[in-house]
Amino acid sequence: MAYYDSLFNGLGLRVWCDAEPGSANVSMASLLAKTNPDTANTGPVFPFPSMDELYQACSSFPQSRDFTAAVETGFLNIKDVLKSVLDPLTQPLSWLLEFALFSFLTTPWWIIIPLILWLVWYVCRSVNIVAFVTLSFVFLGFIDHLDAALQTLAIITVCTGICILFGVPIGIAMAKSNPLERALIPLLDLLQTLPTFVYLIPLIFLFSVTEPKLYGIAIIVYAIVPVIRLTNLGIRLVDQDVVEAVNAFGMSPKQKLLGVEIPLAMPNIMAGVNQTIMMSLAMVVIASLVSAPGLGVLVLRGIRNLELGVGLIAGLGIVLLAVILDRVSKAAIARVSSGQTYR
Amino acid sequence: MAQAPKIQIRNLYKIFGSDPASALEQVKAGMGKDELLAKTGHVLGLENISIDIREGAITVVMGLSGSGKSTLIRHINRLIEPTDGQVLIDGEDALLLGTEALREKRRTGMSMVFQKFALLPHRSVLDNAALALEVRGISQSERHKEAYVWLDRVGLGGYENHYPHQLSGGMQQRVGLARALTSNSDIMLMDEAFSALDPLIRSDMQKLLLELHVELKKTIVFITHDLDEALRLADHLVILKDGAVIQQGEPQSILTTPTDPYIEAFVSDINRARVLRVRSVMTPLNQEITYAGDVGPDDTLESLITLSDGNTSYNFRVVEGEIPIGQIDMKDLVKALVPRVSAAEHQPL
Question: What is the ipTM of this complex?
Answer without folding.
Answer: 0.82
